[in-house]
Amino acid sequence: MTSAFSSALKRGKAFLTPTQSFTSLSLSDSGFSKAPEGTLFPQVDPAIDGDDCDHDCASCTIRYPSKFKVEENDKLYGHVNGWSTHILVATGKTDWVRDVSDEKGSVMEAVKDCGVEPNNGKLMLSASNIPLPTGYDTASDPTSVLLLPAFTIIENVTPSSVPALISQHINRAPTNTTPFPATSNVNFSPDPDSTNSSTVVPRSPFQSRPCPHKYLILLCSQRTRDARCGQSAPLLRRELERHLRPLGLYRDLHDERPGGVGIYFISHVGGHKYSANMMIYRRGSLPMAAAASESYPTEAMTASSANDINGSEEKEKGKGKEGEGIMGDANQCIWLARVRPEDCEGIIKFTVLQGKVVKPEKQLRGGFDREKGL
Does the chain have fewer CB atoms within 10 Å around its N or its C terminus? Predict the structure, then answer.
């Protein structure tokens, strides 16, 4: 096996991949692998988490419309397309054309048509309701993108600069299978002189900064693909907000206080018949030694700068000291489906804050855990 092929194969083993036991994996036709059920994320345990840990919220008053029906019988786990990196393009909208990459003159269209492919695996592309920059008027004006799992906001992105975005940022970013914390001295910050082997790009036109949030909840809201997505997303956001506000963790679209939970609407992710789809990205905490290394030169945020990082979250987990560690990249993404408003309390308390799944048999579609190598 050549070194180049070996490197490509390693990049291809994306989410759901336990590095400890490759013999137990099921490799799909796309090259992404599936961890055995029950190994990816822990399930809540009444003996540890309380007798009501798997109960629906009793105080929830929000309900889906009476005709809101979804497929309830299909097995969900592992039946998603794998991805290595994920970008959310700021559009300021909650609905888009059926295929967002067909939106004329947009950054999404440029990602599809620019002729430059990421060299570190499959890129998931989502339009989002992240607000547009001040002064934005037409699709050719600069917007911003949020790159995951790096938790990096990249500003001044235009359709014509997408090749540079890929070569200077996405290609150099951590992926869903990059070890967490990084074990090699890889500098993930963009290189302004980086060029694609077949496309010459100018020096970097971008500005980048770390996303201020510790957690992200992404909700499919694309009504043009399925009316249920357009109905469920705003209702879930209201119920999520109700549970986040008392914890001091709610962040609206313009709130950039460090820490907390950002909630964004995104375009179709697949499986709308299992609405509502919810993707939860959770940043990992790095030891101070990692903060001082070149592996995380600019994207880390000190825990002491975020009042809630060791506040409400640690109250739930019962551990942690103020100022310990830093916020690194996303070390987990938990992808759920068939989410209803009455699920939100348990999702906040256990899934967002602790990385546990309340209803894995019914709701877990997939995800990754870089710290565990899964």
Answer: N
